Amino acid sequence: xxxxxxxxxxxxxxxxxxxxxxxxxxxxxxxxxxxxxxxxxxxxxxxxxxxxxxxxxxxxxxxxxxxxxxxxxxxxxxxxxxxxxxxxxxxxxxxxxxxxxxxxxxxxxxxxxxxxxxxxxxxxxxxxxxxxxxxxxxxxxxxxxxxxxxxxxxxxxxxxxxxxxxxxxxxxxxxxxxxxxxxxxxxxxxxxxxxxxxxxxxxxxxxxxxxxxxxxxxxxxxxxxxxxxxxxxxxxxxxxxxxxxxxxxxxxxxxxxxxxxxxxxxxxxxxxxxxxxxxxxxxxxxxxxxxxxxxxxxxxxxxx
Length: 304
Ligand code: ZN
Hints:
Blueprint (H helix, E strand, L loop, with lengths): L9 E4 L1 H7 L7 H13 L4 E7 L11 H7 L7 E6 L2 H9 L4 E7 L2 H8 L3 H17 L3 E7 L12 H12 L5 E6 L6 H14 L4 E6 L6 H10 L4 E4 L19 H10 L8 H15 L7 H4 L7
Helix pairs in contact: 2-3, 2-11, 4-6, 7-8, 8-9, 10-11
The structure holds zinc ion.
């Protein structure tokens, strides 16, 4: 509570894309759509629903058009989807996504592995994606990934991350995310990166994307809040990983971050009990447990 007014923090739910993409289970289109419906029922209004990348590279996401066609459209939900080239953004726009998301990796080796492009080429691709999306009236969101550590190069120079932020700010995205793709970051590093990004991208909304590989994601969320970040990605149950970063685990679990934010006095518009129910349902669909702790423990204990 700040001056008696509850401050809002927006959560972007990424389980249907970033989460499922890296899970060993292979959900059907109908299961993905039911997941989206359950997320909406829990209060989600921003959902990363699909990926329009080469289906040969990411076969699990090949049904993006079908997912978008079947997802509820009159619920005030903004759907985002990943696109990494001109063909991808055209497919995303044709499928009716509300936000097109692009990615620029912060290190050359990871950029080659993930996108088969240099950083400079990938920034150029983003400019094309952004132009096409904007011409179609679609919002644009760009993520700089591997900002806290790289599976190939190790430590990442924050100055280099911020130089990429400056170049991307030039395209005036609706949002710019910094992603700890492999879950290596710690709060001091995250706070400094976001404070720097705010200076390099004035007027651009910043968003945090933290994987929980080393159990630092919630601490990183809190550090980013301290320097003014008000939008975070999270994944129901904490499902996910990264196909190009071995041993990386999923994003911070939605239930865990929502518990934290509500107890800190922030509003998210989300219903924690409904999220826990959806997470329990997701376990049955995946055929395995999820990492979320709040899904196991429940919300704040009620007096008996
Ligand atoms: Zn991610």
